[in-house]
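REQUEST FORM: STRUCTURE PREDICTION
Request ID: SP-0412
Submitted by: Lab K.M.
Chain count: 1
Length (residues): 171
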Amino acid sequence: MAISTTFVATPPILSPTWSPDGSVIAYDSDFGIHLTNEEGTIGDVTDDRSLFAISTDGRDITPVWSPDGSKIAFGFHQHDHWEIYVMDADGSNRVRLTQEEPLAERPPNNVSPSWSPDGQHIAFFTDRNGKWELYVMDADGSNQRPMLETALDGLEFEYGFVAERMVSWAE
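STATUS: Completed
RESULT:
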C-alpha cells in the first residue's frame, strides 16, 4: 500500500504590519513585500503570490505603513549593506531615502524604519558612525540627523539583521 502525501512549502511571513485602518497587513517574505488580511482572503499563501505582491524583490524587508496609509517605508539589501526606501501603498513610485557617501570606506547600514504619528518623519537605526544610533529624517529622506542625541548616551543598540523592528512611535 503506497501512501501519497503532498507537501506545499509556504514561505516565511516576516515583519507583519497593519495598515492604519486595520484592514490589510503588509509583510515581507522570501518573495518580496505582500498584502493579506486577517481572514487570509487576500494574499493567501496558496494563491498566486504575484497577485498580492507590492514588491517581488526578496531583498525588501520590514515594511511599515505611513499613518495615512498612502505609503510604505521598508529596508532593502543594497549589495553589501542596507538602505531605507519608501513606495506608494500599491508598490509604485519606489524612492531611495538613505544613501552611502560616495567613496566611503565602508557603506553604512540604515535599517528598521518607523513613521512619526504625523507622517512627517521616519526614524531609523544606522551604523554610519561605527555604532548603532537612532536617527530621524524628513519623510522625503532629507534632513537626516541623530534623534535624541544626548538622551541615549550610554545605551548600546544591536541589530541582528533578521528584519527586527527597533523603534515604534505612538501618539
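NOTES: The first strand starts at residue 14 and ends at 18.
Reviewed by: T.R.
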